[in-house]
Amino acid sequence: MPLVQITQPYYQVIDTFDFAEARQNILTSSKALFALKAFNENDVICHFTIAEIFKSPTYLTIQKGVDEHIMIAPTNLQLTNHSCNPNVLFDTDKLQFICIRKINVGDELCFFYPATEWDISQPFECLCNADNCLKTIQGAKYLSKEILSKYRLTSFIQSMIQQYH
User: What's the pTM value of the predicted model, to 2 decimals?
Assistant: First the structure.
């Protein structure tokens, strides 16, 4: 497979889709999705479907309701990594993968995990290096209304904020 160098590090293309390619970092083995097309804010990048519904969150699910965590298809969308400066959102009402700020060809597709997750099953230390990086990602439940107001959120997360914040 061909190697793709963006800046550093080196990536190997592992799969190609209509709008993106999946790449694997050859040093860390981490995987990510990179845009093959440019998108503008509010463009629908693609639609997705619900492949399976779980009552509890897993590493690969997206929260749609209090006890509704969905596994989505196409599964390549599961390679969308977190960033505190996201460029996409999973709209769980319309089942659309949406561009929320301009995306250029070659940009990594990233979303803000708390935009869909109230309480993440596996909290982690964020390494996105964005100027607004929150450092620890646990879910929207742990963030202030002020911080959350800076992000585009699913209707489920918005309803949880109204109920609990």
Answer: 0.91
Query: How many domains in the chain?
Result: 1
Q: Residues, the chain, total?
A: 165
Q: Are 84 and 126 in contact (CB under 8 A)?
A: yes
Tokens standing for residue 39: 């998108």
Residue at token pair 């440019």? 38
Is 16 within a domain?
no
Domain hosting 78: range is 40-101+111-164
Q: Does some domain include residue 59?
A: yes
Beta-bridged to residue 61, according to DSSP, are: none
The residue type found at 64 is: K
Scanning the structure block, which residue is given the tokens 């040093």?
A: 27
pLDDT digits (tens, 9 = 90+) for 1-47: 555 545 456 889 999 999 999 999 988 999 999 999 999 999 999 99
Separation of alpha carbons 23 and 10, rounded Å: 9
